[in-house]
Amino acid sequence: MSNKGKADWSHAMSVDRCYWLYMLECENGSFYTGYTKNLAIRYYQHKSGKQSARYTRCFKPVKIAQCWRLFDTIGIALKVER
Fold first, then answer.
1. Residue closest to 35 by CA, chosen among 21, 47, 15, 23
2. Which of 55, 61, 74, 78 has the maximal Cβ count within 10 Å?
């Protein structure tokens, strides 16, 4: 039997397990690290002060200094962030 018409879930599964580890450069020259599933939305939250970390509400980010895409569990993202 052919696979015609059957969904390929491998891409969806890998996207679901994808996290971004990021480093922001802040206006005072310091760096802030974090992780998220959606980097664009999270960066906007940090820049706008809405749903952002206390640190980036005090010291606004000026750019994403570096980011890495991790295809693994949230536990790995937490370990790498620290």
1. 21
2. 61
Q: What is the pTM of this model?
A: 0.70
Q: Which amino acid is at 70?
A: L
Tens digit of each residue's pLDDT (9 = 90 or more) over 30-48? 999 999 999 999 999 999 9
> In sequence order, which ranges of 3-73 are alpha helices (DSSP H)?
10-16, 39-48, 54-58
Cβ neighbours around 26 below 10 Å, total? 18
Sign of CA pseudo-dihedral 43, 44, 48, 49 = negative
Class (C level, CATH) for 17-81: alpha beta
Q: Which two tokens stand for residue 20?
A: 């971004």
